[in-house]
Amino acid sequence: MSGNDEHGSGNRFDGEARNVVQAQHIEVMHVHGGSGPPEPPSAFPLAANRFHDRRTMLERITEVVTSRDGSGPALFVVAGLRGVGKTAMAVHWGSTQRDRFPDGLLYADLGGGLSRRGMGGGLGEAVTSLLEQLGVSGDHLSYSDQGRLALLRSRLARRKVLLLLDDARLSGEVERLLPTSPHSVVFVTTDGGLTEVGDFAGRHDAEVLVLGGLPEADGLALLRTLAGDETVDRDPDGALRLVRACGGWPLAIRMAAGRVKVRRRGLGELAAGLEAARRVPRPGPAEEGIVQMVGDAAYGDLPDDLRRAYRLLALHPGGDRPTVVPGGPTSTVEFGSGAAAALLDRPAPETDHLLDSLVDRHLLDADSGRYAFHGLVRAHARGHAEPEGDTAVRRVAEWYLRMAAEADLAINPYRPTTGPVFRELRGRPSPYGEGRDAVQRALGRLRLEHRNLAAVVHAAGDRGWHDLAWQVCEALWGFYFSLKHYDQWIDTHRIGLRAAQELDDPGARFRMGIQLGRALYETKRFEEAHEVLAGALHAATAPLDRATALEFIGRAHLDAGEPERALEYFLQARDLETRHDRPRGVAINLHHLGRAHLALNTLDEARDCLERAQRLFAEIPDPYNQARVLTTLGRLHLTAGDPGAAMPVLETALEIMRTQHRTYQVAEITESLSEVAALTGDPDRSETLRQAAIMAYDEVGSLRADELRDASA
Predict the structure, then answer these.
(1) What global pTM score does this model have?
(2) Up-side HSE of residue 672: CA atoms within 13 Å toward CB?
(3) In residue terms, where are the TPR repeats (predicted)?
């Protein structure tokens, strides 16, 4: 069966929900909206869940925001070395002022402005993530970065949000993400590497807040919170010495407090050890050296099982991306207990105990079942040699593969797959259950883990684990096809295709070629798409795989504005589907043929293909694709200058799409009906339908709503 966005199946969705992914058939998912307003997003990071004082700066932020009457957002650049609490301060202020931001608390990790490996950093992924936080995803997203940026600006223009842009280095990236709303607040954190920070602040009237170590009183208060009043009161002089030995650095104080709390060391004894260690020269910034020094002392206190856990958990591949920071990757990475158990090769109860013990020592952050190292702590843990290194990474990579495959099968249990993991899992009870709720749960799990999964693809590619690299890509099909993370999709699948080629596995080469080719032609990268899809066609051995490849090549030509070339591929695909008695595949390619003929203005041929496709979809039955064909048929009647014939066809399509809860398609058809009403001399109905289309486009976050508003202004 050809795999594209027109395949239907009996995997039906009934009822209403926000941003549901409905599995239509084989390789197809569609995102569509439901009814009712979504909850305001709150996307702040896990690792910033502890904060203490900075009262003067917090009061200054509130004063600026309260008194501001400018035309743009209130903008704060928070600068300071890693571990000083920049993100924590922004999160703390936003959380205490949440009522100011009824439209949400948004977060984007810019990854130092250096990541282009599709693992969650970089501008393209940042924009996609912010749009998802605003409830915009899937087919409603533009294929281009510029289109997504325009949509993001449109969504933010009339909203009151707090936007936290974390770990920024390139001022140009930050400027492109700034909202225009005067009711919003933006925090930009940087470790001091933000380019042209002075000019940037001047251009945007930004407040620059420079964070250093905590004042002694605040450092003592933080130590008291973490280690307990009794401990500090028992040795106040030792407590003050310890805060001074930590340089007032919040992260170092936290780690030192963990040693005090768990090992019951005296504050004075611990301070003396740190004072001696500070006299030993260390490379890099002095404050970061303090964290390394406290980390060395904490590591020395750990029992053997916790030392092993500390080292192995830091090897989690999430966050491994290009960086100029000395000492290797320091990005925050979040993971769950399942991934931790795989890394440690320990059963769940023992893993939970080890995780809790590291959290108690303030070496690991935890919230709602997720765990995270601070980047500096992770770098310290990775500095200790680990003989199990690659073995542990392989274990967690295999765990992620299985998790992703289970989720992908829940999203669409009917699509053909190639990897061995799918053969193992298919037919087993799904951990996500069945039906529409299973689709939502599985997609939610992949949303949570997609950065880690992309990192696994990179880790497998770097280590020559070709079998894992392409299989993880295959298991990400449902996520990428549904939610359109194009940067990540293309980046990972290029690795997956190379892995399949290294293995010289025709099935893997076909699967990777089809999945990568789809992303490439959807993003208008037609030259590369044709090269990749030609390889998929060459690798295809089964007739229906060849039909899929031929159809995708045809679609690439059609999307590139080459309908005449597209015809020959759709004809070949249709003939293969006909010979193998696949009516749905025949209908899909008839619809494509109708679209191609419509583009060529050969209207009789287009009408014949579309009417045959419509009848086939009605017989299957496949109401969604029947409505899609009717929509195209309505456009044909409009092109032929017959709006009267277009009206009943489009009204039938509209009713079907409403029953299918396809809000975006409802908007498109309603817009076409508005045009029909205008052409048939009913301007009042045309305006009513136009407003209804705008409302539907707004519901799914489509930029088309603003385009229609502007057209009537």
Answers:
(1) 0.83
(2) 27
(3) 547-580
